[in-house]
Write a structure and sequence with these properties.
The protein has 624 residues and is an alpha/beta fold. It has four domains: 163 residues, DNA polymerase beta, N-terminal domain-like (DNA polymerase, domain 1), CATH 1.10.150.110; 91 residues, Beta Polymerase, domain 2 (2-Layer Sandwich); 77 residues, DNA polymerase, thumb domain (Beta Polymerase, domain 3, 2-Layer Sandwich); 255 residues, TIM Barrel, CATH 3.20.20.140. The protein contains 27 helices and 17 strands. 42% of the residues are buried.
C-alpha cells in the first residue's frame, strides 16, 4: 500500500466528516476541526519521503506517531487500513452518502458545504452529473445559488479536470528517481536517465520518460514492465515500452545503444519546440538530427550521438541546461562566442548557490518543530548558513499567529540561540535521530554537508523575522515599530483572494510601499492546479517593488512555486531582486529549496538576482 493510497483514504474521511456536519454550531466547529486534522495528516503523508507501510512494519503505531500531524486516532485508522485494506469508520460514513467520493475530493473552491446543499435537494452521484446540472442552468435555481455561482462552479470543475491530468513535480519527484535508480541498478543497463519535462524540472509533469543504454533491450523492457510500480502495460516494442503506473501516471521507456545516448537524451528531454529548433539548425548546416544520432547529409556519416554536448558543439552552440530548453530564445543566446551567453547564462543560479532560507516556520505557530531544531537541520542536513524564522502573525488565526509581544519574545529567544551557537557545541549537542531518516532530497544536486563545515558551524545564524498577514486594505496586522526591530519582514496575503484587479493591485502596492516590508512572500497566491493567483496588474506591482527596493519571493513549496518561471524573467528584466525560500513548516521541507532553484533557472535567474545566495551582511544590506 502506497503513501498516496493512505493519504487518499484520509482525505475521503475528512471529506465525509465535513459533508456530514450539519448539526449544531458547536458540533460543526468540532467536526471542522476534526476534518482538518485528517487533511493535515493526509498532506503530511503525501509529502513524506519514507514509505509508511514499511515504517509501520518496522515500528508499529509508535512509528506512525512520530510523523508530524499524526495523533492516536488517525494512527489507529492508518493501522487498520494497512491491516485490513479498509477503515470501518469510513465505511459507516460512506453508507450515508452514496456518491462517487473520489470525484469530489480536492475539488478546490467547491467544498463539502456547497455540495451538501446540492445533494440535499438533488440526487446526483458524480462530478459529470454536477457539471451537466450547471450546464443546464439547473443549479442556479437552488436556494443559496445564483447564475454567477453556477458559472464559477463550472470554471472550477474545468480547472480541476486540467489538474487531474498533470502531476506536481514535487509529488512525483521521489518516484521518478526511484524508477531511474531501479533502471540503473539493472545488470543489463549501463546508463539511465529520467528525461522529458521531469528533467526540465517543469512545475507539472504529464508523463515520465526514461532513456537507458543497454545491449539487451528485450530484457530491460521485460524488467521495466514488470516493476512493482506498474499497473498496466500499454504497449511493448523492441526498443520501447509504455506503461501506466500505480498512481495513474504513464511512463515511457526508450532503450538505445551507447553511441546514441546523447541524442536520445536530447530528443526525449525536449521540449518538443527546442528539439524542432535544433533540427532546423542541423538542416541549415547540412546535418540530420534524430534520437539515434547527428548525421552528415552528404556522406550519411554519423558525426555525434554519444554525448549531448558534442551535438550542441557541432551545431555551434554551448550546452544548454535542461531547465532552459523551451525555445524561448535560449538557442539564440547559446550561439558560440555570444557575449550574452558569457555574461548571462553562464552565470545561471546553481543548485549549490543558495546559502540560506528566508521563510521558515517554527512551533511558535503552525511549524512542527522548535527554532533550535529548524536551525539544527538546516545546518546539518542542508548545509545552509542561515535561516530566518518567519512565523505567522495574529490575524491569521488558523495558524495561531503571533501578536506583537510574542514576536518580540521570540526575537529574544532567537538571540539566545544565536549566542549558544556562537559560543558552544550547539550543533554537536543536538539529537539528530528524530527526522534524520525521513529525509529525501529533492533536486538535481542535493545538498550534502562538506567535510570542513564543522569549522564554520559557529557562524550559522538565525535571523528574526515574520510572515506578516496583509489585511484587506493593504495595511498590516503588526505595527511598524515592532517590525522594524526584526532582521527581515515578509508580507503575505492569506485572505480576500478575489478582490477586483485594480483593488488587489493597490493592496499589494501599498504593502511594497510599507517601509518595514522587505519581501513579498508567495506574491501571486496561486496553488498549482487548484487556485489561480489573485487578479493583479503584475507590472504595476513590479514597478512598485523596484521603486521601493521590495524583494519578490520564489516560494519553493512545490504546490506554489510562486512566482512562476515567466514572471521570474519579467521581474529580473525589470530589475527587481528575488529570494528563494522553502516555506518550511518541517525540516524536511528544506528539500523543496532545490525545486525553487529549478524554477529560478527556468526563469533564467542569475546568481546575482537571488539575494539569499549572499552571506548575511551583504544580504541584509541589499534589503530595504
Ligand atoms: P509532459 O509529459 O507533457 O509533461 O511533457 P514532455 O516534454 O515530457 O513531453 P512528452 O512526454 O510528450 O515527450 C517527451 C519528449 O519527447 C518531448 O519533450 C520532446 C520529445 N517529443 C515527443 N513528441 C515529439 C514530436 O512529435 N516531435 C519532436 N521533435 N519531439 C517530440
Ligand atoms: Ca513526459
Ligand atoms: Ca512521454
Ligand atoms: Zn504557515
Amino acid at each position: 500500500m502506497s503513501n498516496a493510497e493512505i493519504a487518499t483514504m484520509l482525505r475521503r474521511i475528512a471529506f465525509l466528516i465535513e459533508l456530514d456536519s450539519e448539526n449544531s454550531e458547536a458540533e460543526n466547529t468540532r467536526l471542522n476541526f476534526k476534518s482538518r486534522a485528517y487533511i493535515k495528516a493526509s498532506d503530511q503523508i503525501q509529502n513524506l519521503p519514507i514509505n509508511i507501510k514499511q515504517l509501520y512494519e518496522e515500528k508499529g503505531i509508535d512509528g506512525l506517531l512520530q510523523i508530524p500531524s499524526i495523533g492516536k486516532a488517525i494512527a489507529t485508522k492508518i493501522s487498520e487500513f494497512l491491516n485490513t485494506g479498509t477503515v470501518d469508520y469510513y465505511e459507516k460514513l460512506k453508507l450515508r452518502y452514496p456518491i462517487q467520493i473520489d470525484d469530489f475530493l480536492d475539488l478546490e473552491g467547491i467544498g463539502p458545504k456547497t455540495l451538501r446543499r446540492i445533494f440535499s435537494k438533488i440526487n446526483i452521484k458524480t462530478l459529470d452529473e454536477l457539471e451537466e446540472l450547471a450546464r443546464n442552468r439547473e443549479l442556479r435555481i437552488l436556494p443559496g445559488f445564483s447564475a454567477n455561482k453556477e458559472t464559477d462552479i463550472l470554471k472550477k470543475i474545468e480547472m480541476h479536470r486540467i489538474g487531474k491530468k498533470r502531476f506536481l513535480l514535487g509529488d512525483i519527484y521521489p518516484l521518478a528517481l526511484k524508477i531511474e535508480e531501479f533502471l540503473v541498478n539493472n545488470e543489463e543497463v549501463s546508463k539511465a536517465a529520467a528525461v522529458g519535462s521531469f528533467r526540465r524540472m517543469k512545475e507539472t509533469v504529464g508523463d515520465l520518460d526514461f532513456v537507458v543504454v543497454s545491449n539487451d533491450p528485450k530484457k530491460v523492457i521485460e524488467k521495466f514492465v514488470t516493476m512493482p510500480n506498474v499497473k498496466e502495460i500499454l504497449s511493448k516494442g523492441v526498443t520501447k515500452a509504455f506503461v501506466k503506473l500505480n498512481n495513474n501516471m504513464d511512463a515511457d521507456l526508450l532503450v538505445v545503444p551507447s553511441e546514441s545516448f546523447g541524442t536520445a537524451l536530447l530528443y526525449f528531454t525536449g521540449s518538443k519546440r527546442h528539439g524542432i529548433h535544433l533540427r532546423k539548425l542541423a538542416q541549415v548546416k547540412g546535418y540530420r538530427l534524430n534520437e539515434w544520432g547527428l548525421y552528415e547529409n552528404n556522406t550519411d556519416q554519423k558525426i555525434a550521438g554519444e554525448s549531448e554536448s558534442d551535438v550542441y558543439d557541432l551545431l555551434g552552440l554551448e550546452w544548454i541546461p535542461p531547465e532552459m530548453r523551451e525555445d524561448n530564445g535560449e538557442i539564440e543566446l547559446a550561439k558560440k562566442g555570444s557575449n550574452s551567453w558569457q555574461h548571462k547564462m553562464a552565470l545561471l543560479v546553481d543548485y549549490n548557490d543558495v546559502r540560506g532560507d528566508l521563510q521558515v516556520h517554527s512551533n511558535y505557530t503552525d511549524g512542527k518543530l522548535s527554532i533550535e531544531d529548524m536551525a539544527y537541520y538546516a545546518r546539518m542536513l542542508f548545509d545552509l548558513d542561515y535561516i530566518a524564522i518567519t512565523d505567522h502573525t495574529q490575524s491569521l488565526k488558523i495558524a495561531g499567529g503571533l501578536d506583537e509581544k510574542e514576536i518580540l519574545d521570540q526575537q529574544i529567544k532567537i538571540h539566545e540561540i544565536n549566542d549558544r551557537i556562537k559560543s558552544s557545541q550547539f550543533f554537536e549537542d543536538m539529537d539528530t535521530s528524530v527526522v534524520k531518516n525521513q529525509f529525501y532530497h529533492y533536486g538535481n544536486n542535493y545538498r550534502s554537508r562538506k567535510k570542513d563545515d564543522k569549522k564554520t558551524d559557529k557562524k550559522f545564524r538565525i535571523l528574526s523575522g515574520a510572515e506578516v498577514n496583509i489585511l484587506k486594505d493593504g495595511t498590516l496586522d503588526i505595527s511598524n515599530n515592532v517590525l522594524d526591530k526584526l532582521d527581515l519582514v515578509g508580507a503575505a496575503i492569506h485572505s480576500n483572494f478575489s478582490l477586483p484587479e485594480e483593488i488587489q493591485t493597490e493592496r499589494l502596492i501599498k504593502v511594497a510601499q510599507n517601509p518595514s516590508v522587505d519581501i513579498l512572500f508567495h506574491p501571486t497566491g496561486r496553488i498549482i492546479n487548484k487556485r489561480e493567483g489573485y487578479q493583479i496588474n503584475i507590472s504595476k506591482v513590479l514597478s512598485a517593488c523596484l521603486d521601493t527596493k521590495t524583494v519578490i519571493e520564489i516560494d519553493a513549496h512545490y504546490n506554489r512555486l510562486d512566482i512562476r518561471d515567466e514572471l521570474i524573467r519579467t521581474s529580473i528584466n525589470n530589475g527587481v531582486n528575488l529570494v528563494i525560500d522553502s516555506d518550511a513548516h518541517h525540516p524536511m521541507h528544506y528539500a523543496f529549496l532545490n525545486l525553487g532553484i529549478s524554477q529560478a533557472r527556468r526563469g533564467w535567474a542569475n546568481k546575482k538576482d537571488i539575494l539569499n545566495t549572499q552571506p548575511i551582511p551583504e544580504l541584509l544590506s541589499s534589503l530595504k
